[in-house]
Amino acid sequence: MSTPTAPEEAGTRALSCYTANLARYLLRDDPDALDAIARSVRLAVRVDLPGDALAVSHHAVPLHELPREGVLEHASAATGESALAGVAEEFDRRGQVVVAASSAALPWSVARAEDSAPHLLLVDGRGRGWWHVVDDFSALLPQGRQEPFEGRVEDAALLSAMAPVPVRRPEHRLRDEHLFGVPVPPPPADRYRWFVLGPRGHRSPGLPGGWRLGADAIGALGEFWIALGERPGRARFLDDVWAASQHHTFRYARLLHTRHPTGQDAEKFLAACAAWRDLPMALHFAVRSAERGRSRPTVVKATFDHLHAVETAAQQVIGRYDYLCAT
Amino acid sequence: MTKADAGVRDEVNAAVKKMVVAESRLTIDPATVGDTEPLNGEVLRVTSVGFLSMLIRLEDELGVTLPDDLFAGRSFHTVADLVDVVTPTCTGQRAG
Fold first, then answer.
1. pTM over 0.90
2. B61 in contact with A, Cβ within 8 Å
3. Residue A314: its pLDDT value, please?
4. What angle do CA A277, A176, A133 make, to 5 degrees?
5. A3 pLDDT more than 60
6. Which of A253, A263, A294, B13 could form a disulfide with A5 if both were Cys (CB 3.0 to 4.6 A apart)?
7. By the 8 A CB rule, do A186 and A176 touch?
8. Is the CB of residue A51 less than 8 Å from the CB of residue A234?
9. What are the φ/ψ torsions at residue A212 (nearest 5 degrees)?
10. What interhelical angle do B48-62 and B3-23 show, nearest 10?
11. From B69, which residue of chain A is nearest by alpha-carbon distance?
């Protein structure tokens, strides 16, 4: 259902589970972090990967390269004890730490074990045997409404949330690898993981070859989903499209509420925002239709054709507002 | 609109209202729901997840195929918006 964007949809809670808590981390030292994220939202996809996989990059400016402080790097440990020590060390250095978790392992999560996915949490306080944790992720999920969380958890609960998964699914590995917007290979799945802020180093060279960008990416993504009837396993990438939808909706909501465009510009942004918002529902409809033996590639095509048209129109004017023009 | 088409629209209208009331977990008479009632407002509480389920059920229960451009720039704010998109699929017209 298409509805106008609301101001509250332009904050951290409008972002994906990774980016929401990364944004909270960045916001402490950079009040412009939300606008910086919004300005650099992009769609880049790879649809030529082995295993009929889909990789998505959402951020043109890598989120781990902080403007002044340095570069976020993966850290990991084989045991829970070492992980807590490592998280504590980073906390004592920086006053906050981003840790990797699994959604279904969070006490406040509505996710079921079979739906568990990689997640990030912000640790911004600690005491003897406890940690203050922030999870700004908020969404209406098929399992129910996921509410944000902010509060204390004990050592055991933090370790349980961070516990390595026995097998990391390929789609989760791809998501982990591209969470910052450029490929940063994560540590092995059998380790506890968190991030440390390292010194400023070389800037990322960006995406390697094989990636499709902007309007071309929308076309490639459309072709990927049009073939859903013959390739039902592609449904495992629905969450990646959902994240793209969240990020683009966030971008337009942020633009509309901070730059106050009017007239035709505003109409173009609202149309693009609505198209991105409706995209996950269209694909869920296509998936459920295919599951019922009523494959609907023409619905997918019409949806992506519309998205392509309104996104192209929005891109033609978005540069006037200092937002990335991705076409 | 022919008399037959009007009859079909009434049937769709009744089916949609019955569904939105159930989806909102209400016990009110569906006939008391106005055509302009917001799908997610003071009375009805149809979430995006529930809306998707309703579309699937409408296809199954009414034996129709919703239009290809279902998610291509349409807005579904009220009961009538949903009736408008389903009715032509029952009468052979193209949804506008």
1. yes
2. no
3. 96
4. 85
5. no
6. A253
7. yes
8. no
9. -105, 135
10. 140
11. A302
